[in-house]
Amino acid sequence: MKSFALHERINRPMEFAGLQARFIAYGIAGSLSVFLLFALLYALGLPSLVCILLAGGLGLGLWLSIQKLSRRYGAHGLEKHSAYGRLPRAIRVYSHQVFNLELNSWKSF
Question: Does 58 fall in a domain?
């Protein structure tokens, strides 16, 4: 009797075409924006070869940059990297009033 490994991918980040987690949504949004740019340029009357080359070049550049970010930061690393920049370097308290709590306020619990 054969045994099959069920649920191999549980607790692993979602991956599609080398893109992990949130970068999949970035790739979809970028592809949609490149398509809309192509449609707009074609509707404005630019030659189709120019539209194809421009949209293809921008799409390729966008895809490569998203691939690079996905490999560099992984599934949750970009959120961690952006959150690290918002952390304060230090918390300074100039008043001791924070530490002078009355004990009677704690008795109500």
Answer: yes
